[in-house]
Amino acid sequence: MYSSVIALVCSLVGTPLIIRVLVKRGYGQLIRDDGPKNHLTKRGTPTMGGIVIVLSTLFAYGVTKLATQHMPSASALLVLFLMTGLGGVGFVDDFIKIYKQRSLGLRAKAKMIGQALVAVVFAVLVLHFPDARGLTPASTSVSFLQDTALTLGPVVFVIWAYLLISGTSNAVNLTDGLDGLATGASAMVFAAYVLIGVWQYGQSCADPSSAGPGCYEVRDPLDLAIVAAALMGACFGFLWWNASPAKIFMGDTGSLALGGALAGLAICSHTELLTALLGGLFAIITLSVIIQVGSYKLRGKRVFKMAPLQHHFELMGWAEVTIVIRFWIIAGLCVALGLGVFYAGWVTGS
Fold first, then answer.
1. Using one digit for the tens of pLDDT, what is the confidence trace for 286-301?
2. Residue 46: which residues within 8 A CB-CB, separation 6 or more?
3. What is the pTM of this model?
4. Distance between CA atoms of 41 and 320, rounded to whole angstroms?
5. In whole angstroms, what is the distance from residue 102 CA to residue 92 CA?
């Protein structure tokens, strides 16, 4: 509660402050001319609002730790590192767009190198810092509801973690195309991770009273829930200003940071493959881009009017608010499905 409320207030109050700063400096969004024409009216809207989400999350977590007089955990700090590191890559990308007055920021290769560097450092560190029971923030086993029998070596795990982090951060980035779409969907997924963290803490193998066949071997589940709560609160606060018509965009600063945080929570809570269900909307939108590019390269034809998927419906004449609300419904259904599968796994002991 502390974490979520503090982040919500910081984001709600901090966003209009940064809007004033960005407007004063002329840090406005550039719009591609080949996109939906109604997006041209958004040209000049302040961007890089993801700074508020990142700072609100960090502040909320820090204050919560001080208020409760508990030491930060390695798992939470590593997730926050991943979020901040990828947010930094996104910030550089956004700043180049503004400074050079072009719709593309970092070159694809430079952006990929930046993401890879942060992801690899996280993946290496997450296998260290064992607790009293010898548990590290992550394990080398591929996980779904818990760790599976498929175990990777340390090197292969780093590659797997990089692919997961890169895929998730880019998926959120692709979803961030309409006012409030990625922010609202992200808030729902982080809410799910609050519930998952609290549940894993209550059914931890470290607690003799709850230890059983279905207990969870997760190093810091409650602290991960605190991080997820801070992210959820920060997203809700930002959404107040990011909802249509948006007064500010999160930019790559926010979308890469949120995607990185989501991947970090999945890895540290040992629910890596479950993320595909919880973040089903992100997966669907990413798949639409893969289908569009693959179809054009193989057949010379496009499946959608435009990719990512949300722009296809815009070109079909759907109003932006209609698309966002319907996609939020899809995101909510995916989250409900993911939580249902997670709970069913505990009931069946699988």
1. 999 999 999 999 888 8
2. 18, 19, 22, 23, 27, 28, 29, 247, 248, 249
3. 0.92
4. 13
5. 13
